[in-house]
Amino acid sequence: MKKKINIIGAGISGLCAGCYLQMNGFETQIFEKHSMSGGLCTSWEKQGYTIDCSVHWILGSTEKNGFFDMWNEILDMEKIDFHNHEVRLALEVKENTNKYGNKSFLLYTNLDRLQKYMLDIAPEDKKVIQLFIKNIRKLQAFKVPPMMDKLPFWQSTIRGIKMIRYLKFLGIILYQNSITNKQFAQKFKNPFLKEAISNLFDDDDVSLLVFNFPMASFDNKSAGYPIGGSYSWAKRIEQKYISLGGKIHYNTPVQKIIVEDQKATAVLVRNNVIHHSDMTLSASDWHKTVFDLLDGKYVNEKILKLKNEQILKIYYSILLVTFGLKRDYKEQYHFNRFPINTKLNSPCGKSWDRLETHFYHYDPTLAQEGKTVMACSFYTSNGKYWIDLRKNDRKKYREEKQKFVDDLIQQLEQKYPGISNDIEMVDFATPASVLRYTNNWQGSAQGWLPGKNVIASSPISFKLPNLKNFYYASHWNRPGGGVPVALNMARDVAKLICKENQVDFKVIKK
Q1: Distance CA 39, CA 487 (A)
Q2: Nearest to 404 by CA among 428, 368, 423
Q3: Which candidate, 211, 198, 202, 180, places its Cα nearest to that of 351?
Q4: Contact predicate 14/7, CB 8 Å
Q5: Per the confidence metrics, is the pTM higher than 0.85?
Q6: pLDDT tens readout for residues 209-226
Q7: Closest CA to 298 of 257, 326, 337, 332
Q8: Distance of alpha carbon 482 from alpha carbon 476, whole angstroms
Q9: All residues at 6 or more sequence positions from 236 whose CB lies less than 8 Å from its CB, including other chains
Q10: Cβ distance 328 to 361 under 8 Å?
């Protein structure tokens, strides 16, 4: 008889884990609080426009990135249309200009073109520029993450020899992890490049590894944007899961994980309905799972430190303001960051002296021909303000949202004269929106912040202390989070479940 597994959450982790477990002979069902799959990987429609909340690129869109092998186990990657940007970011600096009097630094995705562009601007920084590009190229020599499945003896021997190379790779990432973008920026003599590299992450000082990894894939054209956006991506995985025999219960939030004799035996959902199973896998929010669904009974010192953010900091919450524009704005770079003269203030206590604009004119599925969607994202560490405001004073919540949008439009008008007349739709998703639909702790956008030291950051275990027949896997397992991490954790937890149930892990392609 097939062993039954209840999965909590139909986000990317839950869907992918469900796929792998169905492939390996388990009977699974997913319980999802929302009316649709995807979790944070989502989109929604409003007034003829599609608002995209998540995916800007997919690591592994081609075989040159290791995530391709994983995605291709679930999806037919050759049939998916990806768009690859020539310019990842147009970054306008505040204090300096380049030799042509231009204040915008263009971050080309092609490394040869980027190096030539930077050398043209600052030949005096030739050695630093070459080092900057060389560090990224070093990462391209390795397929990350490497597949570590059980192989026949001769194949595993060959792989073992190849894996010795990854000792060199470890040294490379340790070095790149030890230096931040702001630290590296100080190596430049040219003030324009120094300011640009220092502001790659706006106000943050982040490990250069966080920047170099995606850049290595951009150059390889293996970090493309999937046409159709975030929900379209999640929907493909949902369809695969269902085709494998999986079941999804929508609008069915889990209220408690039932534990008997230190074993997870069932989940309690709405209307006091109980679903029994042999195992429970939570692919939902970490904090909600540990301290609500399980009442905080299965913790240790490390987990309590994580809760209090003593080991890792929660990833920022995002204020996402999206506009439907009746013009396509194809003359603009798709992603822009630029300084503004007057700070934009949020009632949560955060203010910004730069704006980000993301024009989706490269995806024709999000708006009618001749129109486009443009989004502005704002990061705050006080998502709780918006969550509490919506809960306690809905009227003021709406008023504060409107004021913020009005102030933002005034700023946008200075950068893009006439844009206010092109606005046909406005949507404002706050951390309260994220919490409402996904339960993500404090409205966090991804999980844990990678910070300055990605390697030293401790991941969350797939298990909890003193609790049997329970597993946890989501983007919270690894700092930085995101869609590729969600996939990776789903695959790894499925392999662990197979191992502990004496099942040889396999992948079934249809």
Answers
A1: 13
A2: 428
A3: 202
A4: yes
A5: yes
A6: 889 989 999 999 999 999
A7: 257
A8: 9
A9: 75, 80
A10: yes
